[in-house]
User: Fold this.
Amino acid sequence: MSQRYIQPLRIMIQWGFLLFSLYLGILFFRFVYHLRLGASGPLPGRPEGIEAFLPISALLSLKDWLTSGSINPVHPAALVIFLSVVAVSFLLKRSFCSWICPVGTISEVLWKVDSASSGATSSPPAGWT
Assistant:
């Protein structure tokens, strides 16, 4: 696939993951807000994808899995997401940060804004293009 098609595809995937992360954040905020208020009515569901943002839980679950052979039932998705990120990072090098990670997307946007406002012609860090 030529660079002409890869760059727009990468940007679409970056923004898709960023928007999905924001969506998960909004769902999680609604869940926590309901619990903190002690509101009556149906409890909004806790989004399972939020476990991607629980690296400590993933590491504890990995330790449990390696020592006991069973996956922690409290946050099972955290381990799966963590292992997936590690595997993608090893197999495809910088692809996680430059294609998927919302922090990488925000960093790239800030770099572009700074370059545009200062008139700089430097290139982004390696792996972002």
Observations:
- The chain has a mean pLDDT of 83.
- Helices lie at 3-37, 55-68, 76-92, 95-100, 102-118.
